[in-house]
Structures are given as C-alpha cells and as structure tokens.
C-alpha cells in the first residue's frame, strides 16, 4: 500500500463503517415523535455522513421527502448507494450543511452541529424551516459530577463541551425553545465504536505509517471511552424557533 495523506487515512478508516458517530434508530424515532414530524414531511439530514440516519428516516417516514447533505464526497456516494432503493424521494448531495434551502418540517443533525456551533447553525437554519418546523440535533454533553476519566475523554475530543444547561443556554440565545431532550449513552456509542474496533483490526496488517497513526489515534479514543462508558454522552435535543 502506498503512503496516504492524513485525509486519505481518515477516509480509509471510515470506509465501510455504517456510522461516523454515535447513534441508534430508536433515538431518531424518539426525536420524530417529540417533533411531531408528519407522515408527508420534508426532512433534511444535515451532515448525513454515509447515510445511516438517512436510511432510518426513510423507513420511519415512508411518505416523506428526504434531502441529505454532506461535504465529503466519499460519504455522499456511500449514502446515495444505501438509499437508492427509496428512489427519488431521498436525495443525497454534496454541499455545505450550513446553507440549506428548505422549507423543511424537520432538520436532523446527528453529531455534526458542533462543526458549525449550535447558535450559528440554528440561526442559519431558521429561514430553511417551514412554518411549525423543528430542528433535532445531538451535541456532546458533560454529565454532572464527571470523573477524571470523563474529563480526559472530552478534553481530548471536544474541549469546549458544556453541561446540559450550557446547551439549553445556546439554544435560547439562538431564539429557540427546547421541546424535548434525551441522552445518548452506552448503546449509541457501542454502535459507533465496536464496528470501528473491528475495522482497525482489519486495517492493521500492512498499514502505512500515516494510516497506522490514524488507527492509533482512533484506538486511543476508544480506550478513553472504555474508561468511562456510562459518563460519555451526547445530548439529543428537539428545538423550535420562538
């Protein structure tokens, strides 16, 4: 195998993984229920990755029109292949998730809103919401009385993390109200990390130095999670404009 760039090593690691972040179909079902998303909704999966949640959205709302967007071409291609059986009612494109047209009854953003920031994303998406539209997103959340292991995990992964109250404050400052909140702990993270462990093992033989470094980094992240799996959480929020 020839030497890879850092970006190529990252994409090699994530190739063939079902998810690019923590999550579970049940979480999406909860969000759709709290948001009151109608059967014939127009939905956007913002930062869709390879389409794990796009697929679930299409199944959960079989009469909905679903648009999905991601900036990484490899993920877009994978999502297009996964959702091809749904035909034209699921459209996946490469683009900037901060620039959505709409109007959408629901904008879903799993584990990607931190790339933009909660406040900036919610303000940018407001014009893309239909009347009565909702946004559902997940954001890293520090739980009360965190152990040192939990602090170590987040200091390495997301130093600007806040607790739930900090997330609520950012939502309010963007001019939205919280309709529902939930925590993604345990199973949602296993859905992400356990397949990644298997992927790392399969790539170890013959890995180039750059790829080996990427595998080491991912392995270290998983080890930090295993040190405090009951404390590592995303906050899943369903919000609406005021």
UniProtKB/TrEMBL annotation:
<dbReference type="GO" id="GO:0032259">
    <property type="term" value="P:methylation"/>
</dbReference>
<dbReference type="InterPro" id="IPR029063">
    <property type="entry name" value="SAM-dependent_MTases_sf"/>
</dbReference>
<protein>
    <submittedName>
        <fullName>Trans-aconitate 2-methyltransferase</fullName>
        <ecNumber>2.1.1.144</ecNumber>
    </submittedName>
</protein>
<dbReference type="InterPro" id="IPR041698">
    <property type="entry name" value="Methyltransf_25"/>
</dbReference>
<dbReference type="GO" id="GO:0030798">
    <property type="term" value="F:trans-aconitate 2-methyltransferase activity"/>
</dbReference>
<feature type="domain" description="Methyltransferase">
    <location>
        <begin position="43"/>
        <end position="133"/>
    </location>
</feature>
<dbReference type="Pfam" id="PF13649">
    <property type="entry name" value="Methyltransf_25"/>
</dbReference>
<keyword id="KW-0489">Methyltransferase</keyword>
<keyword id="KW-0808">Transferase</keyword>
């Amino acid at each position: 195998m020839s030497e890879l760039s850092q970006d190529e090593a990252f994409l090699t690691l994530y190739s063939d993984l079902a998810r690019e972040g923590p999550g579970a179909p049940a979480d999406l079902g909860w969000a759709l229920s709290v948001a009151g998303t109608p059967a014939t909704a127009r939905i956007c999966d913002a930062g869709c990755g390879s389409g794990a949640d796009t697929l679930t959205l299409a199944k959960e709302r079989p009469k909905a029109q679903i648009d999905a967007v991601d900036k990484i071409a490899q993920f877009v291609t994978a999502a297009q292949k996964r959702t091809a059986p749904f035909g034209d009612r699921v459209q996946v494109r490469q683009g900037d998730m901060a620039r959505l047209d709409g109007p959408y009854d629901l904008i879903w953003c799993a584990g990607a809103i931190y790339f933009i920031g909660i406040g900036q994303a919610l303000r940018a998406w407001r014009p893309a919401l239909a009347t009565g539209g909702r946004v559902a997103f997940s954001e890293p959340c520090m739980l009360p009385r965190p152990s040192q292991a939990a602090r170590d995990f987040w200091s390495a992964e997301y130093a600007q993390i806040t607790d739930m109250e900090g997330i609520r404050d950012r939502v309010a400052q963007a001019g939205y109200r919280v309709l529902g909140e939930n925590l993604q702990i345990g199973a949602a993270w296993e859905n992400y990390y356990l397949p990644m462990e298997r992927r790392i093992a399969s790539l170890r033989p013959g890995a180039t130095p750059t790829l080996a470094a990427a595998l080491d980094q991912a392995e270290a992240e998983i080890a930090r999670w295993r040190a405090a799996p009951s404390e590592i959480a995303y906050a899943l929020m369903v919000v609406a404009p005021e």
